[in-house]
């Protein structure tokens, strides 16, 4: 079945951010009093690395006791990330914009999705000049609150653009959580990309149907 919708991740897949997601998490931990010499620091950073791609507030709910603490940590993350975006540390990955435009020009809808809050997501898109580039942009808050690896954002993307079936959906991301979200949604094509620092073996182990060097290779794969 032809691909009618491509659901693409942001950081690590279409956007390179020079490690600022990790730096924003470090900023949030420091604001919460968890410094590198704190015994909680190592297990917390391990959990952050293992859940990269998940909703950020979900990560903080796991790390800290109580909703109030999780929200404070999330606010600190957003603050740190916004400062780094404003400092120019984010850029579109080579070929990403062209891939989105090529897909849309061929009649394939494109929805960008992310584990960021809508505020952080919109700041990032504005910094890139990407407002209006995709058919829609989604955060977990736009899909009932559950982020990856749940399928909710992929299924919401289908509803937004009127995709005819899950078999006609392609999901692309750079983390195992991106891959699992696509598989959980039943997407016909689930691809990993190597631009986020995860290896091909890890993405295939998560269940990726294909592993691409970058999202720039997606139009050719969809064409096949």
Structure report:
It is a single chain. With 224 residues, this protein is α/β, with parallel strands linked by helices. The chain has two domains: 5-17 and 91-223, HAD superfamily/HAD-like (Rossmann fold, 3-Layer(aba) Sandwich), CATH 3.40.50; 20-86. It contains ten helices and eight strands. It has helices at residues 20-31, 41-50, 56-63, 67-86, 96-105, 118-128, 152-161, 176-185, 200-206, 218-223, and strands at 5-9, 15-16, 91-92, 109-113, 136-138, 169-173, 189-193, 210-212. The chain starts with a strand and ends with a helix. The mean pLDDT is 94.
Query: Which architecture of the largest domain does the CATH hierarchy give at level 2?
Result: 3-Layer(aba) Sandwich
Q: Which regions contain 5 or more consecutive residues with pLDDT less than 50?
A: none
Task: Predict the CATH topology of the largest domain.
Answer: Rossmann fold
Main sheet properties? 6 strands, parallel
End-to-end gap: 11 Å
Overall pLDDT score:
94
Kindly report the spatial arrangement of strands forming the biggest sheet.
Answer: 5-4-1-6-7-8
CATH superfamily of the largest domain: HAD superfamily/HAD-like
Tally of strands: 8
Instruction: Label the structural class.
Output: alpha/beta
Task: Choose one word for the global shape.
Answer: globular
What string, H for helix and E for strand, traces the elements in order? EEHHHHEHEHEHEHEHEH
As a percent range, the share of strand residues is: 5-15%
Q: Measured on Cα atoms, how large is the radius of gyration?
A: 17 Å
Protein name: Phosphonatase-like hydrolase
InterPro entries: HAD-like_hydrolase_sf, HAD-like_sf, HAD_sf, PhnX-like
Pfam families: Hydrolase
